[in-house]
From TrEMBL:
It is found in: Cell membrane. The chain crosses the membrane at residues 7-26, 32-50, 57-84, 90-118, 139-161, 193-215, 236-255, 267-290. Gene3D superfamilies: Rhodopsin 7-helix transmembrane proteins (1.20.1070.10). SUPFAM superfamilies: Family A G protein-coupled receptor-like. Belongs to the G-protein coupled receptor 1 family. Keywords: Cell membrane, Disulfide bond, G-protein coupled receptor, Glycoprotein, Membrane, Olfaction, Receptor, Sensory transduction, Transducer, Transmembrane, Transmembrane helix. GO terms for molecular function: G protein-coupled receptor activity; odorant binding; olfactory receptor activity. This is Olfactory receptor. It is a multi-pass membrane protein. GO terms for cellular component: plasma membrane. It comes from the Eukaryota. Pfam families: 7tm_4.
Length: 308
């Protein structure tokens, strides 16, 4: 291949021949995708329909659940097609679309978690001033920034995709930016540098805000009443679990993209690579649905069905 205009398809070489087990894998992935869609859509509907949940924390949760649907939809339909395929190829436009979705999903996720930690900081440290500080305008602005910044950054990054590609084989089960950069014939230093800056600035800013918020929350908990500590535990536990889960999964995916991880078994690399995308869309609705008392009480299944 001498020019990207001639690259009509990319071949994904990380897939293994699973034979008749492909139908079992297809069924498992399909059921997982259905579960993710149902659980996230259910919680979005619960938050939207119930007036009692029209609070800042639940608005940010709703944004988080929408992002889970966005990210999982960029992977699962693709996986379902590839599992039953014998060639494991993807058209170049669809590959680029998946790159955009996967990377923007990760950035939106981190920024959403940072915004949620800031919200918890205000609610616990400034309970009397919370409603005046977290206004509807501010809520809308925070949600808009957490979505617009990744989309703008990724749009610019996509314009830096190398023009000349010498190969069309990607050693993964889905497309990502660094895998495309590795196929470049010429030096792709500019794309690499921008990718590193965009990735680590998003992570650094998000983690900085999260750490600041939780240091302040811990300070209030140690000096506050038992009721304050209980409130902090109830509202912050699912958020902290979500941060740790996503950070660990994202760290491995970034490391695998940037460094040689061939010493790990292929099956393990595929599993850990995929864990980055499906884990959160399933983990978050289950964690928040079970742990947040308001959502749990509304979602209780009664004799005649689910009550909203």
């Amino acid at each position: 291949m001498t020019n990207s205009s001639q690259v009509l398809f990319f071949f994904l070489t990380a897939y293994i021949d699973s034979g008749v087990l492909a139908y079992l894998y297809f069924t498992a992935v399909l059921l997982l995708y259905i579960l993710i869609i149902v659980s996230n859509v259910l919680l979005i509907a619960v938050i939207c329909v119930n007036q009692s949940l029209h609070e800042p924390m639940y608005m940010f949760l709703c944004s988080l659940f929408v992002n889970e649907l966005y990210g999982s939809s960029g992977l699962f339909p693709f996986l379902l097609v590839q599992i039953l395929s014998h060639l494991h190829s993807v058209a170049a436009p669809f590959c680029l679309l998946q790159v955009f979705i996967v990377h923007s999903y990760g950035a939106v996720e981190f920024l959403n978690l940072a915004v949620m930690s800031y919200d918890r900081y205000l609610a616990i440290c400034y309970p009397l001033q919370y409603n005046t500080r977290m206004t509807p305008t501010k809520i809308a602005a925070l949600i808009a920034v957490s979505w617009l910044y990744p989309f703008v950054a990724m749009s610019f990054m996509m314009s830096l995709v190398p023009v000349k590609l010498c190969r069309n084989q990607i050693n993964k089960v889905y497309c990502d930016m660094h895998s495309l950069v590795k196929l470049a014939c010429s030096d792709a230093a500019l794309t690499n540098i921008y990718g590193l800056i965009a990735t680590f600035s998003t992570i650094f800013i998000s983690l900085l805000l999260i750490l600041y918020s939780y240091i302040k929350i811990l300070a209030v908990c140690f000096s506050g009443s038992k009721q304050t500590r209980q409130k902090a535990v109830n509202t912050c536990t699912p958020h902290l679990a979500s941060i740790l889960n996503f950070t660990c999964a994202g760290s491995f995916e970034i490391s695998q993209s940037r460094f040689d991880m061939s010493f790990l078994p292929n099956v393990l690399r595929i599993f850990l690579s995929l864990y980055f995308l499906p884990a959160k869309p399933l983990f978050n609705p289950l964690m928040y649905g079970l742990k947040m008392s308001k959502i749990r009480n509304i979602c209780k299944i009664k004799r005649w069905g689910v009550t909203f």
